[in-house]
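Usage

Read records sequentially. Each one opens with the input sequence:
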Amino acid sequence: MTPIITGFARSPDRGQGLARDMRVRWALEEVGQPYEMRLVSFAEMKEPAHRKLHPFGQIPTYEEGDLALFESGAIIFHIAERHPGLLPKDANARARAIAWMFAALNTVEPPIVELSMARIVESNKSWYEERRLMLEERVRARLTELANRLGDADWLDGAFSVGDLMMVTVLRRLNSSGLLEKYPKLLAYIARGEARPAYQRAFADQLAVFKSSQGG
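and closes with the structure output:
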């Protein structure tokens, strides 16, 4: 059965591939699983029909037969378990790939999201500059630790895995921040992820949605 995922009808990222349905699109492209999209407006995301799929009124959601999932990490983990290509066959390598997926979501992403949200909703506050500097320092600490661990390797633990997919999408949220410029190894790491054919297909499809919403 063809899975259905939800995404923004009008993405606030203006076609940059930062919305979290991009992660799910990429995962499905990596494993060669066709899928369908259901695009929802911000108002529709808060309606009862969508909240049955996602209790917090967000995207993405995933439907396949009688299975309905929310949270991009849970969705991608399900995809990785159901299809070959995103999790190593070796049990220990598989466990490490899953650990990196959780690290991306639980350790690296939170300070990045906090910084981006502060810029959006707090930039007019008198204390914003002090808070921005503090948040940027937290992000730099994580980037330094990650760059040190990656070293000169192409991927986080041997071959490309679900951990890399998640980490690349998390790091891309910093593209316009200027914070990545001092981390050439991480920039190269992101570029390797973006160069993957599956990523290119997912990005093109999400960009097409944005262009369509703009009438272009």
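Summary fields computed downstream for this record:
- The mean pLDDT is 94.
- The beta strands are 4-8, 36-40, 61-64, 67-70.
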